[in-house]
Amino acid sequence: MPGQAIPGIQFREPPIFERGARGRTGASLPPLDVPDVDVADALGALARSRPAGLPEVSEPEAFRHFVRLSQWNFCIDTQFYPLGSCTMKFNPKVNEWAARLPGFAELHPMTPEHLSQGALDLMVRLQDLLAEIVGMDGVNLQPAAGAQGELTGLMMIRAYHHSRNRNPKKIFIPESAHGTNPASCTLNGFDAVPFPAGADGIVEPDALARALDEAKDDVAGLMITNPNTVGLFETAMPRLAELVHARGGLVYGDGANMNAILGRARPGDMGVDVMQFNLHKTFTTPHGGGGPGAGPVAFKKVLEQFQPTPVVRRDGDRCRIYADRPNSVGKVRSFLGNVGMFVRAYTYIRELGNQGLRDVSDMAVLNANYLAARLKEHYPLAYPTAVMHEAVFTDKAIENETGVKTLDIAKRLIDYGFHPPTVYFPLVVRGAMMIEPTETETKQTIDDFVDAMAAIKREAQESAATVKDAPTLARVGRLDEARAARKPHLRWRPPEDPSK
Ligand SMILES: Cc1ncc(COP(=O)(O)O)c(C=O)c1O
């Protein structure tokens, strides 16, 4: 029986297509009060030749299936989720209340300008707040995720060079960068040129200067994350920016880790020309990795004309949508972006205010350093120094001693009720475990997590198999990850028709 525990047997939830019976339904519709139409006649060649194959289930079957699946899912509303680099922090419920206000939630994306003044006004206010927070001249809210924000910002850099009749190709990226950085470069036709950080994990101006010298006139820009993906602050940022500007390049700032510097430091003051926000990581909107989230771009005046179109601006006491912008990189998202995300981020920022935003970054940094200070007693830090929002550990010592690796530790954490941290990233650290507690967690939660990590280390020393066989208490055991990646089953196929 689905959803029932049988000792020793793990749970299996069949796809909804494998439940139900022909003719079973959960809907009760009123009798037809319009003339019946033969669909095949009405649609002609466009009519289906056979039924769509939709599940035919009762309401309890459908409801229970999806509720069961939701309960199997690991989520931030039930447990600690220290996924480094992804900043899985709690999303305050007041954001949801605001996003569900009927004036926002029921607004059709094609509502004309004069009837959507409330939403447009919120967008303009959010743009202004975001620009102030990062010290930039303007913000465009359109991109749907951090990664798309990167893509858009680099499109703007490309448009800037083309407007000056230049076509430089090289964007310099520190080796520890998030994978979306080089991908965004490549999609824009740039060459992503990696260069190493110093031994202490941050970029040294001399290393960048050498790389720039080799590129001569081909410098399109620098793409740099600050604080970076090993949780360290790039202290030489202003100097790095000077070096790039002197070569005619621009500085792209990956703003994904803004939660560590909110109210304390502004990328715009450090020489960044264009950057993206990850509203989910910084301003507690639901995580929309690569998709239905929001990754606004902020830019300096010099890039203003290239921002995506349409642009929303205040004009006297009204807000207007401006679509006719000849130098724009174009539209990167349907309509004006994901307005529901804008409402949530705006609510969060207004609820916290100036001091609250500073408290966010103080707490993010305090929590990460507290976690690092306790956990380094059990697992070595990759860079033994104070961190910003996240800390990276290595499995070097434990693997040498017991044969237990990062992946085993990650899987065993599931048995202890914690989501594993990000593993094997960044690649520059052997057996990396990148842990980000975030500002929303209490000391008690962090202590519980560290205690679990210490217990796993003891288990590894006493009986490595316990860790290597994990998870044993989860809904499913250890999966064949290579097969899942290479031969994913992404859609259900009817058993009687396996060829389609
Ligand atoms: C440093 C960094 N850059 C970019 C991204 C991509 O953002 P998104 O997941 O919103 O596409 C992430 C993801 O969290 C990140 O950590």
List the helices and strands and how they pair.
Elements (H helix, E strand, L loop, with lengths): L38 H5 L15 H14 L20 H7 L2 H4 L11 H18 L3 E3 L5 H18 L6 E5 L5 H8 L3 E5 L9 H11 L3 E7 L11 H10 L3 E5 L19 E3 L2 H5 L13 E3 L11 E5 L2 E5 L16 H37 L15 E4 L1 H7 L3 H10 L6 E2 L8 E4 L7 H20 L1 H5 L12 H6 L14
Helix pairs in contact: 3-11, 5-11, 6-7, 8-9, 11-14
The protein binds pyridoxal-5'-phosphate (PLP).
Pyridoxal-5'-phosphate (PLP) binds next to helix 6.
Question: What is the tally of beta strands?
Answer: 12
The number of distinct structural domains comes to 3
Distance between the termini: 29 Å
Largest beta sheet: what is the strand line-up? 1-7-6-5-4-2-3
Main β-sheet, in a few words?
7 strands, mixed
* Associated small molecules: pyridoxal-5'-phosphate
